[in-house]
Amino acid sequence: FIQMLRSAKKRDILQLLRRAPQEMCPFLVEAVVATQSVASLAALSDFLDFSKEPKSLLETFLYAAAFSPRPSGELLHLVLDKLDGKQLAPEIWETGIVAVGSLVGKLCQQKLCGLQVVERGVETILRGLRDAEEEPKVVIHLLALGNARLPETIPTLLDHTEDGPTAVTAAATSALQRFPTALISSKVKRVMRRIFHQKRRSYDKTCRLAAAEILLDNHPSPMDVINILLATSEMETEMSTFLLLKVQNSLR
């Protein structure tokens, strides 16, 4: 079916989308996203009206875009255009921002970071993070940065790790876990030590575990391992057991 769509014209794909029974629409939208031809994306752009379509269909489109294994710049362009300057339902907007992060990350893996649309996607996430005043919005943008995994955003993530609310610290730390070892610098490790050992304030156990994992998964120093092991004696059983197993696995 996707092979057929790849050779179809825009008007034929659009007609197919508009005439399809309602229960078939999610399948067709996923197939058109998978096709990623110029004609299919143009048809999808005309078909999807973010101010009118059912939330479920819009989420289907955004999830299909986010999970696309090798997305094109045109697909990211379509997602950004559909999100830009519109009054959207909160859950659609949140899914859209996370999808933008995923698309940016995958395009950069394809060595396409220099595309103008990728730069636009990064700026959309960073601007949204700067403007976000409510905790849930901050968290969503941090999740998007975690999906993008761009080296230049690590300082931004570090800025949100130590002093914010628990949900923000957890999201920023979780985002840092997704970066490869080569990008986990000594500065990142210093911040993770402060979180794990609670140098500045108390942290939720989820945040502490994520910080410990970053230290243990990225060329840990002997002193880091020793200090984490010493700290387990003061932790609840579940948390200490997890960390002990983590150290044992590293030793193996």
UniProtKB/TrEMBL annotation:
<dbReference type="GO" id="GO:0042157">
    <property type="term" value="P:lipoprotein metabolic process"/>
</dbReference>
<dbReference type="GO" id="GO:0016323">
    <property type="term" value="C:basolateral plasma membrane"/>
</dbReference>
<dbReference type="GO" id="GO:0005783">
    <property type="term" value="C:endoplasmic reticulum"/>
</dbReference>
<dbReference type="Pfam" id="PF01347">
    <property type="entry name" value="Vitellogenin_N"/>
</dbReference>
<dbReference type="InterPro" id="IPR011030">
    <property type="entry name" value="Lipovitellin_superhlx_dom"/>
</dbReference>
<dbReference type="InterPro" id="IPR039988">
    <property type="entry name" value="MTTP"/>
</dbReference>
<feature type="domain" description="Vitellogenin">
    <location>
        <begin position="1"/>
        <end position="233"/>
    </location>
</feature>
<dbReference type="GO" id="GO:0005794">
    <property type="term" value="C:Golgi apparatus"/>
</dbReference>
<dbReference type="GO" id="GO:0005548">
    <property type="term" value="F:phospholipid transporter activity"/>
</dbReference>
<dbReference type="InterPro" id="IPR001747">
    <property type="entry name" value="Vitellogenin_N"/>
</dbReference>
<protein>
    <submittedName>
        <fullName>MTP protein</fullName>
    </submittedName>
</protein>
